[in-house]
Amino acid sequence: MNKKVIVFDLDGTLLDTLRDLNEASNYALEYYGYNKVTLLETKAFIGDGILKLIERSLKGDASRLDDVLAAFKKYYMEHFDVYTKPYEGIMELLSYCKNKGYKMAVLSNKAQGMLDLLCKKFFDGFFDIIIGDRPDIKRKPSTMGLDIICKWYKCDYSNLTYIGDSDVDYKTVCNAGCNGIFVGYGFKGRNYLESIGAKNICDTPYDVINYLEM
3 pLDDT exceeds 70? Predict the structure, then answer.
């Protein structure tokens, strides 16, 4: 397979951020008198950015949405790396891609500032371009981020592979018509990915390496 650019999602693909997101959600919810959410609920709520995560965590009561969102952001900024870590095999996957000469980028619906912090802490030196949630770019499943990445690398979608773990990532790949790899170890899981029609599902980062060798 000759795909020169690889674009990674972050949460559920490169990093297991679930517990820190859950802790930040519950801090903000409890502070304003709301019930806490479980890890499984947080896992189900992730994928469309922080605003949607908090909206879903509030379960229909948006009366203090802005307050809870602000409390979440403050807490998460100060505690974003307590439990967060790369999935087993991710560093090997990134090193493999770098050694093979792939160009690598990140496209996430995570807030740009937090995305930059996480990539700097865990993956410094691997990615040329890192695109997160910011006012001038539509979030996935829009292809705007991928378009910017293609322009950066002077390539088209035929030279690009996107790797993600969610329905949002699947829709992004479908909208772009590019090659996609979907990871069953992430937040949504293999069964869910299969149920929405995703192909090229890999259960570990090592399986992604094997797929790229094909």
Answer: no
